[in-house]
């Protein structure tokens, strides 16, 4: 697995850039890369997406196999290190710390670190003195590569071409 997608990569694609009704090519492109093992995610992202009761949740439910478990020893260990770092960090504050640790984000970073994957998120770095906890900052701290959806599309040479 080369790339792991954050929930917001799916959600923002559905809500903005690649709405399922007008850009099915994006979703087919994801399927292609799911099938060849280049793109996936984790079971906690599945849980976040599958319960929304919308088109995306229906789409995700048909693809449960591409969402990996995080119960392996290496991922658990990496998660522990990430959680400890966040709790002990001098500037990160509540409620941001608890909020971050209660969702898939730290697990996604832990799994990406474990398997050497690049994490795909629409989040952006925040200044080092910020009280917020953001995926890119934690990735940077733990040596995990990250990019956004547009970088992923470019890197994997996507061509979402209109057939007209």
Walk me through this protein's architecture.
This protein is of the alpha/beta class. Helix content is 52%, strand content 9%. It contains 9 helices and 5 strands; from the N terminus they run E-H-H-E-H-H-E-H-H-H-E-H-E-H. A 5-stranded parallel β-sheet has the order 3-2-1-4-5. Helix 8 (135-141) links the parallel strand 4 and strand 5 (146-147). Helix 5 (73-88) packs across helix 7 (105-115). The longest helix is centred in the middle third of the chain and has 16 residues, at 73-88. The radius of gyration is 16 Å and the shape is globular. The model has no long low-confidence stretch (mean pLDDT 92).
* Number of H/I helices: 9
**Uncertain ranges:** none
**Amino-to-carboxy terminus distance:** 34 Å
Q: Report the sheet-strand fraction.
A: 5-15%
Structural class: alpha/beta
**In one word, what is the shape?**
globular
What is the rounded Rg?
Answer: 16 Å
Number of strands: 5
The major beta sheet can be summarized as:
5 strands, parallel
Determine the fraction of residues in helical runs and give it as a percent range. Answer: 40-55%
- Strand order in the sheet with the most strands: 3-2-1-4-5
Element-level helix/strand string: EHHEHHEHHHEHEH
Mean pLDDT, to the nearest integer, reads: 92
């Amino acid at each position: 697995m080369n790339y792991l997608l954050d929930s917001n990569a799916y959600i923002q694609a559905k809500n903005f850039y690649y709405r399922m009704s007008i850009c099915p090519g994006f979703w087919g492109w994801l399927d292609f890369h799911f099938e060849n093992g280049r793109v996936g995610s984790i079971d906690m992202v599945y849980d976040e997406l599958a319960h929304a009761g919308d088109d995306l949740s229906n789409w995700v439910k048909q693809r449960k196999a591409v969402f990996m478990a995080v119960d392996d020893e290496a991922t658990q260990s990496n998660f522990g290190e990430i959680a400890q770092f966040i709790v002990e960090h001098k500037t990160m504050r509540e409620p941001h710390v608890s909020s971050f640790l209660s969702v898939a984000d730290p697990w996604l970073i832990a799994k990406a670190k474990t398997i050497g994957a690049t994490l795909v998120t629409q989040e952006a770095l925040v200044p080092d003195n910020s009280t917020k906890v953001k995926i890119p900052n934690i990735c940077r701290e733990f040596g995990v590569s990250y990019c956004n959806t547009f970088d992923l599309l470019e890197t994997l040479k996507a061509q979402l071409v209109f057939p007209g």
